[in-house]
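Narrative of activities, Objective 1.

The group set out to show that a structural description can be obtained from nothing but a protein's sequence at a throughput compatible with the screening campaign. Below is one input-output pair from the validation batch, recorded exactly as produced.
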Amino acid sequence: MTETTQQYSQAETNRLIRAELKASYPGTSFTVRATNGAGITQTVIGWEIRYRPTSAEFDGYYSPETCELVSGPSEAEIDALATRYSSWEWAGDDGVREHAPERLVATGAGELPRLVRYGAGNVTAYPRYQNIDL
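Output recorded for this entry:
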């Protein structure tokens, strides 16, 4: 028996990303935008991270050591989600990218997992930080 890989386009992958974000973080507003250029596809996930300074060492910029998140997901949480959908992997510090391997994914209730390849290229989390005390 030959296993086939289900290929998703960038638009289909972005719809899957939006659906997972909506289900996982229902109170947070996200943007999921596709960009293309120079032979590269990229998806950028945007949202607002609201924080409050908690330390006298606060220097005007968000840092987990000097601030607390007020609501919504952290950058690390969305980075983890972005990595799952990216169809590229970094091969090292030299900036070389390689196609990510197919992923074994359960696509529906009661179905066996299938091999999938996402078409979003590089998926990047790009938050906007907002100090709520200002």
